[in-house]
Amino acid sequence: MKYLEQKPGPLWWTKNPRYFMYFVREINGILLGFLAFASIITLIAVSLIWKYALNSNALFIGTANILIPVLICATIVSSIIHTLTWLDAMPKILPLQLSKNRQKIAYVILIIFWLGLSYILLNIFYLSYATVV
Amino acid sequence: MQHFTLRIQRYDPEKETVFFEEHNVPWTEDFTVLDALNHIKDKTGASLAYRWACRMGICGSCGAIVNGKPILMCSTFCRDLKQPIRIRPLANFPVIKDLVVDTDDAMNKFREAMPYTKIQKQHIAPTEETLQTPAQLRKLKYASQCIKCMLCYSACPVYGLNKDFVGPAAGAVAERYNKDSRDEIKDKRMDSMTGDNGVYKCSYIGECSQVCPKSVDPAAALQKLKVAGIFHTAKSIAKSASAAISSKRKS
After folding, report:
1. Does domain B104-241 fall into CATH 1.10.1060.10?
2. Pick from B11, B18, B138: CB nearest A97
3. In this structure, are residues B116 and B177 in contact, taking their beta carbons and an 8 Å threshold?
4. Where are the domains of chain B?
């Protein structure tokens, strides 16, 4: 007489939408990490080009590649998914005991705050910097 | 509809074989999945094995995976389910027979959560009650509703892949006792819950909270424990550092 052992199979994450979303979230993290690393390298490269080859075409080589807009779009989608999942988790980890409805309200407030902050950062820092440059 | 069709996964431990059986149960408006199984057992004399007791979602015995979701069979009506109704034992646990699983491993995880309140006796007289205010009760009430039905363990892939993980319900129970204003062993409990296979193994998939029949929200409890664990670790480091400094001064 033997018990029947049960273990999740290799494709367990495809069996349930929530498991699948978990995988998407984690893959986003890898993608974002990779792109953050790639961005740092790019920034260093661009600053070097800026310094030593200002008048050359080297600065525009990167932006001409079709992969760049695709990667930028992937990063934007990844950041949005990642941010939304984190904002969803935020009301749950607070020491306050919020009911499910209040958690939803807190989630909406956090999204509004996030959008507002993004708008301010875009306007004050990025666009003003772009105008100066 | 004339009848419900139930497709049940069975396991014969003598022959070590898994097989499926289909049964038709006459359509009855208020039949739960458990009623349908009882009907099959009564009318057809099937040797089907499954656990049940209270029939009202209190004892937590009749958990199974129905149409892919871990549920309590006594709280789910057949009329609300897609036909045929597919029933199999809870996932992540060894199957003893048919729908009966061995939950000992998960039950033992509750010991790590130290599910009791330790009150130091010098604080109260033997006849004195240790009352809580409604506000104090509200903090722990949601987590105190756990009935140990093990649906959350069945829904947790982290536990499925790593049986050493403390698991969702144990986390919820630990949070319940940590929030108890009378308890005085929070530090010990936090040591236990933040160990190698403690709350930090949780990936926050969140399915445990979705399947919980008592809305305990173990996923949130585990996240709260993670945050509390950071403060607990910082406190422990500060404590040991100050102890080291004071012993050095003395010497």
Report:
1. yes
2. B138
3. yes
4. 3-101, 104-241
